[in-house]
Description:
By secondary structure, the chain is mainly alpha-helical. It has helices at 31-42, 50-74, 79-89, 99-106, 110-122, 144-165, 170-187, and strands spanning 96-97, 126-130, 138-142.
Amino acid sequence: MEQRAEQHPGPPAESSAVPSAVPSAVQPPDHVARIQAAWRRERPDLDVAPQGVIGRLHRVATLLTHELCAVYARYDLGEGEFDVLAALRRAGAPYERAPGELAAHTMVTTGAVTKRIDRLERAGLVTRRAAAEDRRGRVVALTDAGRELIDRAFTDHIRNEHRLLAALTPAEAAQLETLLTGWLARLEPADAPPLPSPPPAR
């Protein structure tokens, strides 16, 4: 999924869907802890401690994806289509990139990004034309309708991200960002190939 570091233009909307941060307290075992307990019983010869981090990250990522995609769906977009429109919009005028650039910026294969472009073109949100410097190449550009849509969708998306992150204190969020940044740098070299995209949700 694409990097989203831009700041929300206004205060985040309040919502009861995500609880505010609360002081530490004794919590009952969560789903991951119950799985670990079962494995410790069945395979006491294995150290299943990594599940405490990786299992919870996986569940958090799944829940966040569900919450983010709910906003994209308001604009009749899937996650991949939103990423392509956002990559074009943040390119600046004239809001265009080559398909290979889009694949790199959205961190998927060129085959996956081509399918996304096809859907967006059918919806009238992007156009394709021959590159001026190489008639064999292609350039993908936002249409006026595409730019208007991604501006509205991105504003709603950032408001949603603020809402989701409100479950942490500012200090917790900063610490988590530092930890994830360092871990990601170790797992994902700068020259790593794009990840294959999952099947479309719709």
